[in-house]
Amino acid sequence: MNLPQHIAVIMDGNGRWAKKRLMPRMMGHRKGSENLKKLINDCDRLGLEHITFYAFSTENWKRSQEEVKNLMDLLREYLNDHIKNEKDNNFKIDFIGDMSRLDEDIREKMIIVRQLYSTHKGIFVHIAMNYGSRDEIRRAVVDIANEIKSGELEPDDITEELISQHLDTKNYPDPELLIRTSGEMRLSNFLMWQLAYSEFYFSDKLWPDFRVDDLIEAVNEYNSRDRRFGGRNEVN
Ligand code: IPE
Ligand code: IPE
Ligand code: MG
Predict the structure, then answer these.
(1) Residue 156 lies in a domain
(2) What's the gap in Å between 211 CA and the centre of ligand 3?
(3) How many domains does the chain have?
(4) Sheet holding 6-10, edge to edge
(5) Where residue 22 sits, what CATH number does that domain have?
(6) Is 209 a catalytic residue?
(7) Global pTM value
(8) Is residue 24 part of a domain?
(9) Residue 159 falls within a domain, yes or no?
(10) So what's the pLDDT on residue 235?
(11) CA of 57 to the centre of ligand 1 (A)
């Protein structure tokens, strides 16, 4: 199997998973979080280099206060678990998105986890938390504008590469493959710049039910696609 270097995943359908079982939405999020932990270890064993998971969008603050609080508490738990069990995990981890709106204790835990895991040798996991593609591009534009104002840059220096270098994903390659679960076929403000030429794969499985075998099926489908990047692969 020819593995992409980087896969991006929109983990969707936790609420519907719970609803189907007449459970509160929170149970779906909890199952989703457990599934994330398991899938990361399975992907590490596969030998994947990078994987980015969409965990909370800049639009998800619109949900009820209760659901937002539950999601933040689940994130706290997730981070504490990573701090406690660092020795059992082989992956590296970091976070993309605007951390400034998150509670201070969460931000501190994120910094600790990133630091603790930085010497690991396995897959690099990127978690998108309070992430929105439009917000990420806005933040990049503000940074570039400030560099022009201070005389570090000229407007003519703004290339596509320079813009990429001001995004949260600056240190790693764009995803070759995007997977979204739960049958929804939209980006919901995820990595719009980085996914310009990625292959899209939509699974009907709800996120808590999505396993590494489903991911392998997506990779097989990806391998059967003819990626042209606007050019032509066949001469005739
Ligand atoms: C994805 O599951 C998790 C987050 C967006 C935080 P949802 O909560 O969106 O589940 P559905 O789409 O309502 O089923
Ligand atoms: C996208 O899912 C965000 C995450 C998975 C974190 P949503 O459930 O928020 O997206 P919409 O509202 O269906 O577009
Ligand atoms: Mg959803």
Answers:
(1) no
(2) 18
(3) 1
(4) 92-96, 124-131, 50-57, 6-10, 177-180, 199-202
(5) 3.40.1180.10
(6) no
(7) 0.97
(8) yes
(9) no
(10) 65
(11) 10
